[in-house]
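Hi there,

I know you've been waiting on this one. I reran it after we fixed the sequence typo, so this is the corrected version. Both the input and the resulting structure follow.
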Amino acid sequence: MKNFYVVLIIVMLMPGMGVAKSLYTSGDSIPPLPFKLSPKKRLSDSDIAEKKEGLFLTGLPRFEFDPIRGFGIGGNIFLYQNRTKQDPFFYYTPYRYRVNSEFFIFENGRIRYALQMDAPYIFNTRWRMRADAVLWEDPHAQYWGIGRSSLNDLSFSDKSGGVYGARRNFRKVKDYEDNLARAVRMGDGSYITDFHHNQFIQREHLYNLLFERVFMEGRLRLMFGYEALFTAFEDYSYKVAEEAFVVEGRAVDAINNQTLVSKQINDGTWDRFNLSGFNDSFQFTSMLAAALIYDTRDLEPDPSEGVFLEYSHEYSAPWLGSQFNFNKFMLQGQYIHTLLRWGSDKRRVTFAGLGALGHIFGPNINFIEMWDLSSQAEAGGILVLGGERSLRGFREARFLAPTVALINLEMRSHLYDFRMLKQHFSLGLTPFYDLGSVWDNLTDVNLRKWRGAPGVGARAAWNQSTILRLDYGHSREGGQFFFGFSHIF
């Protein structure tokens, strides 16, 4: 394994490499498509002109800072096969297949491994195959409460006087967390802290296998598949805190007080929502998944025109071998439209909007399933409600409930493009506004008490299929930066 990571790092430091030799000569005619595809699915002339032929790698070492987990280092390697311009699918797909490998480790010990494959029109058929294997461990997974009440202001006992004082509301998440981190001396001389009040330890192994078939000249897709999820969790309540605490100028040891997840498990909150699954031994969630998708976008990784409509449904039950029993569905719609082009077709300003509504219900719900609207969503899942893939100005998982609504509005621009080391790059800015809310029941959905967060991002498109993303989101609770791959939708 050690040698594998050495090779991984070396390859990531190399720009895109190894274009395969053409399978055809320039004089060959382009074979017809084996079945008809809508002209709306055809890439734009500028995208086709810049599309790289053959087999190639792109990869990048990543250096991130997360307000929860500190500094992180790792990277991705993307292996693409585009074939040649003599392949009729060259003009209709972002790639013939893509393999993505990822490794990342953070300062706090969070670690993630992932291997993903995507093959549109596999074997020149109407079928698409996706497969994922993801393993991670996070010692600081976030828990801010379940239900509509999670939309309330941050609140905790004021510890500024060295004791637990009156309940206090906090406008900024930094002030709230500074207050939590204070150690308080108890009557027996020991010290306690609430440093991990909104945290727990998460371990997860996820395996996905999905198939899609296209209809209506490629605009309609039927997806179905299977997901195996293994999860284990640990609570910080009453454990010795590993962090150092200073009280009155001297370092002291402290014990973690009861966490919010422990409190809500025991006070009946989880029973009210039929939640379970918080266990330090691995629990098994076996799920069937299906989705109906209508898609007219011209280029999936970075579309300039089109709409995307999806209904997805996930189902888990004991007869599948699962330890849980629930249903989860999501409706989402995306609208992409280029408002302005100049200079060349590659320079443009494009509006991109997403609206999504998700709901989970059943007699025995794995609580971690509330953390995403649907793991089968187009971009690999929509984590809610807060963090880099939803409300970017709020902390990860800041708002959670059985029913979740999300709106993302972006103005994506391509302002400058250039070639370097036989690679094509396009740079641009993306101002955005994120908006969302949560409810205890689907029948409670209304227009009151939504949370919004504006922000701005930078984008770099690398050989079209690889999108690098840097975002800064700001909310009334503070701001945070994110760096990653691909648009959030």
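Quick highlight: Residues 2-12 form the longest helix (11 residues).

Best,
R. S.
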